[in-house]
Fold this sequence. Notes:
Elements: E1 4-7, H1 11-24, E2 27-33, H2 40-44, E3 47-52, H3 63-73, E4 77-79, H4 89-97, E5 101-102, H5 107-114, H6 116-125, H7 141-151, E6 155-163, E7 166-171, H8 174-192, E8 197-201, E9 207-216, E10 221-233, E11 236-242, H9 249-265, E12 269-279, E13 282-289, H10 296-303, H11 307-315, E14 332-339, E15 341-342, E16 347-348, E17 351-352, E18 355-357, E19 364-368, E20 375-376, E21 383-391, H12 394-407, E22 409-411, H13 417-423, H14 427-431, H15 438-447
Parallel strand pairs: 1-2, 1-4, 2-3, 4-5
Antiparallel strand pairs: 6-7, 6-8, 9-10, 9-12, 10-11, 11-14, 12-13, 14-21, 15-16, 17-20, 18-22, 19-21
Helix pairs in contact: 4-5, 7-8
The protein binds ligand MV4.
Residues 131, 156, 164-165, 200-203, 206, 208, 232, 235, 275, 277, 286-287, 436 line the site of ligand MV4.
Amino acid sequence: MFEKILIANRGEIALRVIRACQEMGIKSVAVHSTADSDAMHVRMADESVCIGPASSTDSYLSKAAIISACEITGAQAVHPGYGFLSENAAFAQALQDHGITFIGPTAEHIRIMGDKITAKETAAALGIPVVPGSAGGVPDFETAIGVAAKIGFPVIIKATAGGGGRGMKVAQNAEELEIAFRTARSEAKNAFGNDEVYIEKYLQTPRHIEIQVFGDGKGKAVHLGERDCSLQRRHQKVFEEAPGPVITPAQRARIGKVCADAVAKINYIGAGTIEFLFENGEFYFIEMNTRLQVEHPVTEAIFGIDLVREQIRVASGMDLSFGQDDLVINGHAIEVRINAEKLPNFSPCPGRVRMYHAPGGYGVRMDSALYSGYSIPPYYDSLIGKLIVHGRDRPEALARLKRALGELIVDGIDTTVPLFTALLEEPDVLSGQYNTHWLEKWLAAEFGA
Length: 449
Ligand code: MV4
């Protein structure tokens, strides 16, 4: 096992990893920018290294600075958290070249899943159901028309270098396709320096269902069910839950086994998430994320498994501490993302937190790096906390969420808390009857946003 791990991240996820290290008897190293000298992750780690200026390009995204910090402190492994360098194949490779363990999948697996066409081809070859569409890239409009004729309108054009909703265009007919195809290509070229695009049947009212998988890198893998993350605004998740309110045990077992078998076959190591659109009882692969996700705590809650501990175990060459048969769902968990944002436009709202009081009590987990008097810097993501509740069933989790939100105090800045208080009054949220469009429609109706 490692003696010392460097956490190449900040905020709540850095604390999450430091806590796992502490429980495992592993020393932790925080890295920080000059804007984060007073950040909680710096205080909580055993030691810390300043790796650059406020701009994340020159600090949290600087491979050289982070590798130097490993050499200075003698850290044997790096946990990348989510965002920043967590899905950067070159970073995983550079660490390996320096004899440092990347706590995550291999550079090759990150690379494969980072290119969305290659990811989809790989998924299909491994037996994962995919959205009907083009076989690989679509080089010209004539090919695009041919694909649309075969699968039928509406279609969606996606950039292979995109992902997470970036660089997508929907077309309802041939005329729209011509414009959409050319715009998608030129936008992809500008945004990613890669104009390759692919085409899929556009699913009109799907849910976003993602399967948590975990591999030991030695041909064994398990699944930890699904999370329903359909409540999103501009491709940002705001409310996530596990299990999915409309997924049956039979559907879960079937798609879960397909996913676990697929990642076992490629000797995948560590945590991964296979994202699906779910419509009319069918799963359609869209992307795979090769990192720990923001919303991992809802899965931890219902399975009673510490996913970060398992990441560290398998990265050090150990086996998973559990097998598929040990995984039994206990109750229901919901996470809401608390952002430093002002409603109704979700405009970033950094600044000084006069008072912070975290909710507590049975079934409540608050992951946050806030403290009273902390000044949220304006340079980074607006996520300031995640409130996770666990109950015996969905109604109990919802009631607990309402109670916990009432206890939370973040005084001095605006947050997304009022959004959740309002959502908990909505019959569709209470009944779980929502899809990927529900939140945007509701916001438009509520605020005319
Ligand atoms: C789609 C789709 C409909 N049909 N693909 C958005 C994020 C990226 N991961 C894929 N996305 C979508 N892909 C097909 N073939 C609709 C979306 C989509 C979406 C997906 C999940 C959650 C929220 C969404 C909001 C708008 C569009």
